[in-house]
Amino acid sequence: MRTVAVTKIGNLRDTDEGRRGRIGVVDFPDQPLGAEDVRVRVAYAAICGSDPHLAEGFFGTDVPIGLGHELSGVIEALGEDAASRTGLRIGDRVAGNFLKFCGICRPCRDGRQQFCERIHDYNRPGMAETVTWHASQVYELPEDVSLRKGCLLEPTSVAVRIADKTRIRPGDTVAVCGGGPIGQLAAQVMCRYGATSLTVIEPVAARREMALRHGADHAIDPTDEDQLERAREVTGGRGFDVVIDASGSPRATRGLLDIAAYGGTVVYGAMYPSDYELPLNLSDYLYLRELTLTGVFVSPYAFPRALNLLPYLFTDELTTTVYPLEDAADAFAAHLSGNHPKVLIRCNNLDDVGAA
Ligand SMILES: [Zn+2]
Ligand SMILES: [Zn+2]
To answer: How far is the CA of 82 from the centre of ligand 2 (A)?
Structure first.
């Protein structure tokens, strides 16, 4: 089974070719189909901002490392129990959660599946011809969601989890830093949640415009404008009740504390370099301003709601760039160029499979 994988550890942007990481297509053995499993023929798998971090060895350095956790596809086989207990059928269009939570460990029993003690034991790459998942990971797509849009279910679940962690109240003022896919989806989710003065902070004009087309009220170019000054202007001098970082950029993180309102919440909703430390004056930000700082690792309990939200979200700009599986290396180069809002890999041509 052909699978896109990291074949050499290293920074994918390294100018020194000897040190640069590499992406290739390798052949992995088919995964066994257990009684509770579902085999999915993958239609689309999207490249995530976190994938290049995997190439740097963030979660391990034994190559090849199979990639792909944002995918859609069509069911081609069902284990006996998955068939009788889920209502899923061969031919159903699905997407899902790449993580399988064990359900047995203490965190799983305690409403904290994101800390499942077996979370790293089960990693089945989805940027592949097929993937076999446990039935608990699989969700049937709504009729009006195409396979192309369906691969955004997982990033949408991250936007939902970010929204959960903001503990937003309707009417709260909200800023989203970063106009990549997670920032765009988070802004749209916050908009539906009752955000006001919704402001996107993003250096790339096309991304600012995309956010403005889909619900943002204001946009700040942090490279060209005084971010703090604009934030004060937009919020009547108070700062934002909710600030979300979806940029993952260490340069952006510090300034976000200053645009938060007293009592505000700052969600660092991205993946950061493992050696980066944020300078934080506890007296100013936690004592005097009572800020709540939090983050998002993965998104348990968010998939059913992400599935409900997906038909309402504007995502056409995120799914226009598509590469075939065999050109995965080119797809990653396109992702790294920053010229595409998001890059998809077509693993099989299944566009003709209609809604059931
Ligand atoms: Zn992702
Ligand atoms: Zn567990």
So the answer is: 20
Residues whose Cβ atom is located within 5 A of ion ligand 2: 102, 105, 108, 116
Q: Which fold has domain 2-152+315-346?
A: Quinone Oxidoreductase; Chain A, domain 1 (3.90.180)
Q: How many A from CA of 229 to the centre of ligand 1?
A: 32
236, 212 contact by CB (below 8 A):
no
| Nearest-ligand number for the alpha carbon of 121 | 2
Q: What is the Å distance from ligand 2's center to 117 Cα?
A: 5
**Numbers of helices and strands, H then E, in the chain:** 12, 16
- Spatial strand order in the sheet of 22-27: 22-27, 2-8, 65-66
Residue-range domain boundaries for the chain? 2-152+315-346, 164-295
pLDDT of res. 355: 55
Q: What is the mean pLDDT of residues 245-270?
A: 96
pLDDT in tens, 188-216: 999 999 999 999 999 999 999 999 999 99
CATH class of the domain comprising 164-295? alpha beta
Determine the distance separating the centroid of ligand 1 and the alpha carbon of 48, expressed in angstroms.
4
Helical (H) or strand (E) element with 81? helix 80-86
